[in-house]
Amino acid sequence: MRDATHPISEERGLLRLITCGSVDHRRSALVERLSGNASLVAPGAFSSARRELRLTDVPSDEWDTRHLVAAASAADCALIIVDARTGVLAQARRHSFLMSLLGVSKTAVVVDGMDLVEYSEERFREIADEYAAFARATGIAGYVCIPTSGAKGDNVVEPSPSLAWFSGPSLLAYLEAVETSEARRRNAPFRLPIPGVPRRGSDLRSVAGVIAAGTIAKGDRIVVLPSGQRSLVTRVADDDGDLDVAVAGQPVTLGFEDEVDIGHGALIARPDDRPTLSDQFEATIIWTAAAPMLPGRDYLMRSDGYVAIATVTPLKYKLDVDTLEHLAATKLERDDVGVVALELDRVIAFDPFAENRETGGFTLVDLITNDTVGIGLLHFALRRSANVHWQASDVDKASRSALSGQRPALVWLTGLSGAGKSTIANLVESRLHGLGYHTYLLDGDNVRHGLNKDLGFTDADRVENIRRVGEVARLMVDAGLIVIASFISPFAAERRMVRALVEDGEFIEVHVDAPLALAEARDAKGLYGKARRGELKNFTGVDSPYERPEAPEVRVDTSALTPEEAAEQVIGAMQRAGVLERREH
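RESULT FIELD:
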């Protein structure tokens, strides 16, 4: 039997560093001093007497949050370089806060250039006190301030007589002693996320995955979450055979005493030290995409062990990273940091990011482009997720539909203002009413007189407008009705969100298609004219985009069809979908 230890980690103590903060030449001088007294392993990596160190630098003239996030995700320790003459500037505060936010729990604040201030203890104490005040205000812990002179070599590798008043370690001594994130992961509670298809063959008594935290051994008891099923570990193995114990970071196969039903997104833990289960959270999001993050829009949420649909509801505040001020905001732009409430379409098992980066971190992905658009850090479950439950009813949608003798559905008409949506929707409902169907018409203008009268026409307001209408339409479909909804609904993401609210086959998307020039010529309300004159902002087709449906169930060209002909095409699509049967008058 073997013990799953990694030689480089245990014997050499691999430490991953990220350097940032001050001007580039100060960082370069320090790195040269460190690497000059060690063995060069590879570019950006060197080996001292006790451990291997790998460096990632964040250039001060190439600030990019995505670069910083990628570097921090693998870092054990941050070197925040501060010029002894200028003190803790905005960039050092920004980098320090983001490093702490991204889970880099150890920080060396290197006050460099002490030779330029005559090795003044008083000056060093001023800077240390300044940083301490900043750290208290932001909750940064696990840091140490170290005076150095990269140019002269003072206190970089060995203590310096010029800094005899400093009783702490040299920079290299600190780096050789600091605990790595890998060591912390091994000492953390056991976590094994199960991504993809976890089975090997059809064996229900084993599962394969990569250990995110902690250790596991034969004879340990486990619980599978979120199902709560328990069992006993009968085997721990890797590709080379059985193990005495497996540790964080290692791919393993676990055998169980019982048949265990483990689905995609499950997480294995110990029964006496479980993660939290929830589908609603407070989280921090670092936005990395050019297109803004809009509350109410759905995104794909990915972590090592699960994939879920996440909705931001709401954006609580945006954080000014330079001043740490909480700012009211309706969206996040690229490089913004915001605190949000998240609602998922399923329950997940998680740990707060501050306790476990692997089970508390996630990425957000655009549902349409499949591009990564944000990095997220889970804080805690919202209490309403445990206290608010869906109330089941003895009378369900099927029984309501049977009573009315119809199949419920949501017919969604989308298109430019002036394309003819409302006229066609009214004709369709009148036709269905005449045939004896139970219907309801939701119109964009009508809901803004009541349900959505508090919303404007910004992108964020448009997203929330459709989110609310979608929820209302879902309830009406559950009541057994055929709902006809007429909304510009310019964004594909929100139309996709509404489609997902109802069952397969219950959503019929109708693109009421008209050239912009024709829609503008039909404009009886004069809205296009106001928009062209700048009197009406965020008007779809003028200064706000319309994303054409790529594959609607039916497309009606109102430049070639009369409203009655267009309505007949919609009726035909409903018949082909099995929503309508032919009825005699």
